[in-house]
Design goal:
The chain is an alpha+beta fold. It is built from 8 helices and 16 strands. Helix content is 29%, strand content 27%. Strands 3, 4, 5, 6, 14 and 16 form a 6-stranded antiparallel beta sheet that branches. A hairpin with a 2-residue loop joins strand 1 (38-39) and strand 2.
Length: 263
């Protein structure tokens, strides 16, 4: 299958030397133009980090690219992966800085947790359809890491009775601007979108309570994938398949995380 061949090709690639960049980029563009830049739920990228050992399941949910993190390249890469979703102010790239508890927009993670560790969550869980891909990087090396947990494998392991519980779960989702009912699973063609944000979602029915307990137990028992920011690496993750969180930033109050949402 062509998808598998591309994944094998990517796994063999190391950080691109400048002399080989144009050759590999042309090869990448041919795949992109052929309409196969998105591979069963993850993205085709130019190079995968050589320092992280990935299972096949993980490779379909996230990847790290060793490249410069300037805004021009980030925008170029994001445009290749899909449609960039600008924020309310029209910014394609969001620059996130740590805030003290009680600062910033009410009910956000920064407002509630400040410089402490965030809980695992789906970004944009309050949207009608959460952003599919998230591109993240830092301008400088940072010890404030990002941690990932693959949810897709977890969903595939659910028993039939547990899957029914998930599909019939109803959560109350509350933000300063809206209150609505949602489920953790949303049908998207042949797949599901996983939506989870304990900061704004609370169980409404008994199925949601059971579902919440199962998710928390799975997260607690899972070994997280830890992304260490070097200032020269870029993370792209499938927001429909992964939950992620930030470690505490008490030693780096001036850390800047760049983030782009992509559909």
């Amino acid at each position: 299958m062509l998808y598998d061949e591309i994944f094998l090709f990517l796994r063999k690639m190391k950080s691109l030397p400048s002399s080989a960049y144009s050759t590999y980029y042309e090869m990448y563009m041919r795949y992109f133009v052929a309409g196969i830049n998105k591979l069963t739920g993850i993205i085709l990228t130019m190079t995968v980090t050589k320092n992280i050992s990935l299972t096949d399941q993980e490779q379909k949910s996230w990847t790290v690219i060793n490249q410069e993190t300037n805004d021009k390249f980030l925008t170029l890469l994001a445009n290749e992966l899909g449609d960039i979703i600008a924020d309310d102010n029209g910014n394609k790239i969001q620059h996130l800085r740590p805030k003290l508890t009680g600062q910033g927009i009410k009910d956000t993670f920064s407002y509630k947790y400040g410089l402490d560790e965030f809980p695992y969550h789906t970004d944009t869980a309050f949207w009608a359809k959460p952003a599919k891909l998230i591109l993240m990087t830092t301008e400088l090396p940072s010890s404030c890491n990002t941690l990932l947990i693959d949810i897709k494998g977890f969903l595939n392991s659910l028993t039939e009775s547990e899957l029914v519980v998930f599909q019939n779960s109803v959560f109350t989702l509350k933000t300063p601007s809206q209150i609505k009912f949602v489920s953790v699973l949303q049908r998207e063609k042949e797949d599901f979108i996983f939506r989870y944000d304990p900061n704004i979602m609370t169980p409404f029915n008994s199925n949601a309570k059971k579902c919440d307990d199962i998710i928390k137990e799975y997260i607690e028992d899972s070994k997280a994938i830890e992304i260490q920011w070097t200032g020269k690496n870029i993370l792209v993750l499938n927001n429909w398949r992964m939950v992620h969180k930030r470690s505490e930033c008490k030693n780096e109050p001036k850390r800047i995380l760049k983030r782009i949402y992509i559909n």
